[in-house]
Specification:
Order of helices and strands of chain A: HHHHHHEHHHHEHHEEHHH
Distance between the termini of chain B: 86 Å
Oligomer: heterodimer
Structural class of chain B: alpha+beta
Radius of gyration of chain B: 39 Å
Number of helices of chain B: 26
Distance between the termini of chain A: 30 Å
Helix content of chain B: 55-70%
Shape of chain A: globular
Radius of gyration of chain A: 23 Å
Largest interface: A-B, 59 and 56 residues
Largest sheet of chain B: 5 strands, antiparallel
Largest sheet of chain A: 2 strands, antiparallel
Number of strands of chain B: 12
Structural class of chain A: mainly alpha
């Protein structure tokens, strides 16, 4: 492989310039009033999902670990930042209310009133232990990366150490995700049960900035995060480290016999991508405004895998393409943007039938186009698509081995 | 009250002999005013007088009085009155003869108030205990149970002997034992009755009545003379202090709210006690300001902490028994402990049954998956939707065939066929083409699962559809007051056993089973022996999916049928299969038993929180897979590593 400087690789140039065009274009159009604030938020959220998809592609497309839990890390990132957003904002509001009283409020009174405001819905009036540092932004920002990272580290260490691979690992990650979401669903989890954290679109200290401006800031931040992570990921997979990852995907045992620390590599990828998902979630949920346990349910993580598969595994830009295409199409169809089809006897409403289309379309992609959208793009670009990865499974499929 | 009942009882025991047969009317006339305008205060006295008269007509009179069926005519005499339009039809109280009719204004109806009626009802109980009508006797027993009265104990005892109905006699004996335990004459008799108390709710209530305690503040920490201490109360310091303050034994502390009120009231020109209001933003500053206020006499001074501590130290809050006899208390404590132990044992059995029924549901849901996963090595994420297809099949059959039993008989095989065909179609169209790409199979079947769920939602709507069980499956099998299990769960258990036997027989005793096992262990070798692995795979997939369909009918019977019902079982089913060991029927059984037992066990430890139970169960399973990555019964063959 010839060493082209990273920044001159065509896909890096393409992704970065697309992001630049998108953010600049969106900014100009929003300022001109051509697109609404909610559309800017949708774009920003989509970029965050693309970031998670790139992480998923690293862990699945390159390393072959089908994690069905990466959206849980995404949700944890959202919860971590949401705790600060909600607590700091509620304390501001409550302090303003208490200032109306004849006596100036004590810090304990403000705390108690804020806790009642936040946890009244689950019948509590004190902050749970995990909220102790929630009024310090830097602690919660650290938590955005450290909590997913730590969880992934412990889970991955346990799973990889006992050589849990393939579908077993998928089921295990799915079970872990289910456990997390069920735990969050309880009222006494300390995170408001199924109410989740809400009002996250209001940034404490920036209440004077209108949402239309804030949404653009978040769009830029999301684009910067995606661009930065893309370059980082591209650099990683182009280096020797990336070769080791692909080798793990193709034949883990052979690599282990060659003396590589397979578990170490897997752990680094699993943990690193979980942190990236945490960051993506922390950027996503202030734009969405609310995070609740349903967002962490296993199905969300399966959808993440679906996006990557549709986009094309093993191509980082394919993951971006898949995530952006499916999530934008999804909001177009479910938002009522697609016209209904009148068959005479039955009217197909896309709000009802979109999921059927998505499910069957996904089966079709898996069956007919294992390379996904990326393969299609490469073919259109009149380049021979890279030979499909000769995985261990594919090798097994061939008779005589 | 007691006296009158004793009197009445004496009369009743003597029987309705002619010697005592007297007219009631004179006695009524003697108390005419107080009968007519009966009040709660006097009515017992009146009843006593009437009873002293000894007339056999007292019971019917009391019943009529209670039902507002007595009138007083203009001549001052009492009659049974029946309102007929504008007139009263009168009946003589003593002779029972018709006494003509009078205008409705010529007689005044007796309308005893609720309090009076209660007294009359209690007085009637003793008559009713020996009433010839069994219904009245049962009602009297129920009334006595509700409102136990020591005075009626002799009447009850006396009525047991002549009781003709064995069931009512048993009721009476039970009630006599309970009343004796609470109100018996001497401690020995009470202890004997306590020892004979059973496990029924009423018997346990008697025990808790005997063991009832009062909470008192004991000066110097010693209980008052004669009181038996149950133990120190479990209150914390603040609660004890509140009790002491209430009893006037300790100075009341100044609460934060009272302090803030006093401070707010004392604000003048932005200053409180010489301090600017703005400085009062901490607890310490507020207390300081308050003490300054108190020093100036503008607020109640805070009591010294030493005084409060002294009061707390010198007084104890004790729970003392209302019962005065130590022997009775000891016997009741022992009986209560024995009952608790028995309840705990029965609770454990009940928990075991619950766990068993949950395990059989998990087994039914997972066994189909175990077959397909074990033989084909594919993860079928749409397995839950086959469960859903089976349940909706049952629902559709039930809308066509109204007879629940018949529709169930039709639905079970039909659900097997529908889900099985869907499985075969899935195998032929999708899974066959993804052979040996397990991760992609997982995702493709997930796509199928999403599509099937949404189609079901579009066809049947989002609301839950009922799958009604036939009458013979309704209700519960009640083994004791702590052990019961609904018949549907028993039926699911039986169904799980049937499927276990059928699948084991199929795999071990039939040609198909032999071929399936051969393909599982070595498909290449099996193919060279003339077995078509493709055909076997398709049949196996159809079988596994069909079983899921039957499981769907079973699950739909006790839960409701929704488009998402399968999704709720899919993760559990996977865990059951993985924990048990892929490809082994008995492994799946063990996995289902482990997961069902575990879930119920954790729920028992923390009954209020089933979500937490599921969380801990999943964490346990993750830990379990660390220890035995290949499950309880590890697989040998193609996929074993």
């Amino acid at each position: 492989m010839t060493r082209t400087p990273l920044i001159r690789r065509p896909d890096v140039i393409a992704v970065l310039s697309c992001l630049a065009v998108l953010t600049l274009g969106a900014t100009l159009m929003a300022e001109a009033g051509l697109i609404s604030t909610s559309f800017v938020k949708t774009l920003g959220k989509t970029l965050c999902l693309c970031l998670a998809a790139v992480a998923m592609d690293l862990v699945w497309g390159y390393t072959g670990i089908l994690s069905l839990g990466h959206m849980a890390f995404f949700g944890i990132g959202g919860y971590a930042i949401g705790m600060w957003l909600m607590r700091a904002r509620t304390e501001d509001v409550v302090a303003a209310q208490l200032a109306q009283r004849p006596l100036p409020p004590t810090p304990a009174e403000v705390d108690q009133a804020a806790a009642t405001q936040i946890f009244g819905v689950v019948g509590s009036d004190t902050f749970p232990w995990m909220w102790v540092f929630a009024d310090m932004l830097w602690v919660q920002l650290l938590a955005v990366v450290l909590v997913p990272g730590l969880l992934a580290l412990v889970f991955g260490w346990l799973a990889f150490r006992s050589r849990v691979t393939g579908v077993y690992l998928s089921i295990l990650t799915q079970a872990g995700t289910l456990a997390l979401s069920l735990w969050l669903f309880q009222n006494d989890s300390g995170l408001r049960g199924n109410n989740g954290l809400s009002g996250l679109q209001n940034i404490p200290g920036l209440t004077h900035v209108p949402q239309s401006t804030l949404s653009l800031w978040f769009l830029w931040a999301s684009a910067a995060a995606l661009g930065g992570f893309y370059v980082l990921a591209r650099w990683t997979v182009a280096a020797r480290f990336g070769s080791a990852l692909r080798a793990i995907r193709d034949d883990e045992a052979r690599l282990r016999f060659l003396g590589y620390d397979v578990e170490g590599f897997k752990l680094v990828v699993f943990t690193g991508t979980s942190m990236a998902c945490g960051v993506a979630g922390a950027l996503y949920y202030p734009q969405a405004g609310i995070v609740n346990p349903a967002e962490i349910a296993p199905i969300a993580s399966i959808y993440l895998a679906v996006w990557v598969a549709i986009g094309g595994r093993g191509h980082l830009w394919g993951a971006i393409l898949g995530a952006a295409a499916v999530s934008l199409l999804s909001s177009w169809f479910t938002g009522g943007g697609a016209p209904d089809i009148d068959l005479g006897v039955y009217v197909i409403r896309w709000t009802d039938w979109w999921l059927v289309l998505l499910g069957l379309g996904f089966v079709a992609v898996t069956l007919l186009a294992p390379q996904g959208l990326a393969g299609l793009v490469l073919r259109l670009a009149r380049r021979r698509p890279e030979a499909p990865a000769r995985t261990l499974e594919a090798a097994r499929a061939e008779p005589g081995e | 009250m007691t006296l009158i009942l004793r009197l009445a009882l004496a009369l009743m025991l003597l029987g309705p002999g002619p010697v005592l047969a007297q007219d009631l009317q004179p006695a009524l006339q003697a108390e005419a005013e107080r009968v007519e305008r009966a009040s709660r205060r006097h009515v017992e006295e009146v009843l006593e007088t009437l009873a002293a008269n000894g007339s056999p007509n007292l019971q019917p009179f009391l019943e009529a009085w209670q039902d507002k069926g007595v009138v007083r005519a203009e001549d001052g005499l009492f009659y049974y009155g029946q309102r007929e339009g504008d007139v009263w039809a009168l009946t003589d109280i003593d002779s029972g003869a018709e006494a003509g009719t009078v205008d409705r204004r010529a007689a005044r109806q007796l309308k005893p108030n609720a309090g009076v009626r209660g007294v009359i009802a209690a007085a009637l109980v003793q008559f009713q205990l020996s009433d010839p009508r069994p219904g009245a006797r049962r009602a009297a027993l129920a009334s006595l149970e509700r409102d136990p009265d020591a005075a009626l104990l002799p009447a009850l005892r006396a009525s047991i002997e002549d009781e003709p109905d064995p069931a009512i006699r048993a009721l009476k004996t039970d009630l006599e034992r309970r009343l004796t335990a609470r109100f018996g004459e001497d401690p020995a008799a009470r202890i004997a009755a306590i020892d004979r108390l059973g496990a029924s709710v009423q018997d346990r209530a008697v025990l808790s009545r005997i063991l009832a305690t009062d909470r008192i503040v004991a000066e110097g920490g010693a209980a008052p003379e004669g009181a038996i201490v149950a133990g120190p109360s479990d209150l914390d310091e603040a609660e004890r202090l509140a009790l002491l303050v209430e009893a006037g034994l300790a100075p009341a502390p100044v609460t934060r709210m009272a302090r803030d009120m006093a401070l707010t009231v004392a604000i003048t020109d932005g200053m409180v006690a010489g301090r600017p209001v703005a400085t009062l933003e901490s607890e310490a500053a507020r207390w300081e300001a308050y003490e300054a206020l108190a020093a100036g006499g503008a607020a109640r001074p805070r009591p010294a902490e030493a005084a409060i501590a002294e009061a707390l130290a010198s007084h104890a809050v004790l729970d003392i028994y209302r019962e005065a006899d130590a022997g009775v208390i000891a016997a009741a404590e022992a009986a209560s402990a024995a009952q608790s132990a028995r309840l705990a044992r029965h609770g454990a059995v009940d928990l075991g049954l619950d766990a068993l029924s949950l395990a059989s549901i998990y087994f039914l849901a997972a066994i189909g998956l175990a077959v397909t996963f074990g033989v084909m090595g594919v993860i079928n994420m749409a397995h839950g939707e086959f469960i859903m297809i089976g349940a909706y099949t049952g629902y559709v059959v039930q809308t066509i065939i109204p007879d629940y039993t018949l529709s169930l008989i039709v639905a079970l095989p039909l659900a097997f066929c529908t889900a099985g065909l869907a499985g075969v179609a899935l195998e032929r169209l999708v899974i066959r083409h993804l052979m040996h790409r397990p991760l992609e199979t997982l995702l493709a079947t997930f796509g199928i699962s999403v599509a099937l769920q949404q189609i079901a939602k579009n066809v049947f709507g989002t609301q839950a559809r009922p799958l009604t069980s036939p009458d013979w499956l309704a209700g519960s099998w009640i083994i004791s007051d702590a052990i019961s299990i609904s018949w549907i769960r028993v039926a699911i258990f039986v169904l799980a056993l049937v499927f276990l036997a059928a699948i084991v027989a199929l795999l071990r005793r039939t040609r198909l089973g032999l071929e399936v096992r051969a393909v599982t262990q070595n498909p290449g070798m099996a193919a060279s022996m003339g077995i078509d692995p493709g055909r076997i795979g398709m049949l196996t997939f159809g079988l596994g999916s069909g079983i899921a369909g039957v499981a769907g009918v079973a699950i739909g019977l006790y839960a409701q049928v929704t488009s998402e019902m399968g999704a709720g079982y899919i993760v559990q089913s996977f865990m059951t299969v993985v924990v048990g060991g892929v490809g082994s029927v008995f492994g799946t059984l063990a996995g289902a038993g482990l997961i069902g037992g575990l879930q119920k066990g954790i729920e028992w430890l923390n009954p209020s929180n089933t979500l937490a139970a599921q969380t801990f169960m999943i964490l346990f399973i993750i830990a379990f897979i660390q220890i035995r990555p290949r499950g309880i019964v590890p697989q040998k063959g193609r996929f074993a590593q």
